[in-house]
């Protein structure tokens, strides 16, 4: 298994957890939890492939990702895990923040990479845009299906963290694809967590 | 007219009715009813075609389906029909359940068939996934546009009924395409109605 | 710069304003405003290109449109502009109605034109359908992301204005592409504004 595949599986697991956590908080039953976890995990990649003209999207051809996401969601649904999440009020929010941020970082740079491979050249604007859609798409679908305002519109530095991670990945591309992707994902993850921790405050309409 | 086309028209009518019923319950005006009925009826097929790379999607090339769905929605909007729906509180829910389940069953197996034809071979995972998206897609769009939590996340055995119907259709494929599709659709329809009638209860997060 | 490009930029600006106005009314912060403005402006065109099989969609290849939309959204977010919008209760609603109607008219006929060019022949049904999706798509995404019932399902003559503008554009196509598009957009704009001003009343389910 290549390190790229391991990276994608990690992103899939992280987003599946975030989807399952949201589904549980919305009192969905076990099937709703599995489906929302899977949708969150594979949704961004499906949007990415549709935009790049890769049909059927990879998720529809390789059962591994969807099945991994379903298995992870079912694990999160296990009573001991759920009890853990409810143990402290804050734990639910922290888990959602953390796993969503990991998925955001990983899928952003995978989107950049896929745009690069699909087009055979690095069109920076296309790569950033596709990276952001790949990174944010799963979470947007998760929040819309769960009936909550999408994170991307209400959380500080959500899309911005994704954009800056994509930019970092592209700027570092020449040092090697894997370090560029790892550092790009780290930039997004770090910015997103810092913004949440320090509650970076942005101008808001009154 | 081939029996396949008749089958697809029946699914279109059933989903158009379900969309119109939801729109009426949301107090939409006549245009909203027509558009929601049409979106429900052709939405799943459009998603299916985008995933399979069939562009423009069939619904955009053959006016018949969209126009049928609009005509059916306007019929449902006629005062006598609406009065009938309101006659008993339960009738509205029953109509929605029944026609949604018929559309779910038919579009699931049409999705399986389209995936098979488009790829020239039966990739079981792809066919099931595309079948479920085709079957559930129209209803998900309907519920999201109407501002209600999508059926697929909150109703027992919704996606599961679709998955099991797709699996049955694929297992039976060798006995002939049409009997496989009819039986697959029947499996989905029967499971969905049984689950609703007996209120099959699934574990839910507390 | 061709007159067609100027026309598309005008539509982009109008829809970006409508998206920013909705985002501000939903108390989103400056990033949410920029992203919702951009999504509204480029969303319809992206759906159009996916349907026609044009991948990556134009918006992903030409940075101009997305960046224009972001810049316009940030301008709308400037305190003096926001204060102006809040100056009178009605002004907010009027701005949304007006700019949404301009975007609806322009993107409808651009959708018709793109369908025509992409297919090399004028398939009237396809052109109308693609025109309506292009015109209404950005606004539907805007309203769904903002958590409000989509305009298209609740406003009188919204989709109808788009359909009639597309039909006018197609009927006039032989007198020349540009006059046909200008008149088609004018038909949609005029019908939408007249319907809102005179509160054209349509049958509604009781």
Main β sheet profile of chain A: none
β-strand percent of chain A reads: under 5%
CA-based gyration radius of chain A: 16 Å
The chain pair forming the largest interface, with residue counts per chain, is:
A-B, 29 and 28 residues
Shape of chain A: globular
Q: What would the average pLDDT of chain A be, to the nearest integer? A: 91
Order of helices and strands of chain A: HHHHHHHHHH
Helix amount of chain A, in percent? Answer: over 70%
**Total count of strands of chain A:** 0
Distance between the termini of chain A: 51 Å
Specify the number of helices of chain A.
10
Low-pLDDT parts of chain A are none
By secondary-structure content and strand pairing, the structural class of chain A works out as: mainly alpha
Oligomeric assembly: homotrimer
């Amino acid at each position: 298994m290549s390190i790229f595949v391991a990276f994608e599986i990690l992103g899939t697991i992280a987003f599946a957890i975030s989807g399952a956590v949201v589904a549980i908080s919305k009192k969905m039953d076990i099937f709703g939890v599995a489906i929302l976890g899977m949708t969150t995990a594979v949704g961004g990649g499906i949007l990415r492939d549709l935009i790049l003209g890769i049909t059927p999207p990879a998720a529809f051809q390789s059962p591994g990702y969807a099945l991994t996401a379903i298995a992870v969601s079912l694990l999160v649904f296990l009573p001991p895990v759920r009890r853990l999440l409810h143990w402290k009020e804050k734990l639910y929010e922290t888990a959602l923040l953390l796993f969503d941020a990991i998925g955001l970082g990983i899928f952003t740079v995978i989107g950049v990479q896929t745009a690069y491979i699909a087009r055979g050249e690095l069109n920076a604007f296309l790569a950033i845009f596709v990276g952001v859609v790949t990174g944010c798409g799963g979470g947007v679908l998760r929040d819309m299906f769960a009936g909550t305002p999408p994170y991307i519109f209400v959380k500080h530095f959500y899309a911005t963290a994704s954009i800056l991670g994509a930019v970092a990945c592209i700027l570092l591309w020449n040092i090697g694809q894997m370090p560029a992707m790892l550092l790009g994902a780290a930039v997004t993850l770090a910015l997103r967590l810092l913004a949440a921790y320090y509650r970076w405050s942005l101008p808001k309409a009154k």
